Amino acid sequence: MLVRIGDLDLDTARKRVRRGGVMLYLAAAEFAVLELLVVRAGQAVSHAEFVECCWDELSESAEVDAVIAQLRRKLGPPIIIGTAPAGGYIIEG
Description:
The chain is an alpha+beta fold.
């Protein structure tokens, strides 16, 4: 499935990500977290939900913050992954 949010293209079948037409290389945990955010675009995703849904890649809540920081760096500006007011993270769709 190909999902587009702004200039971000996520190909879930091929596990590929492009931003502004540029291919990005993500680690498995980074892709899993980004995929969950994109699938739930516009909805906050809690630390517990990341750990539950990305269990093979993430084992602790603290790892979620590290993966989000890595994703923000790799995706570059403008930042599309926000911090949700009630906790967790959100990507606007």
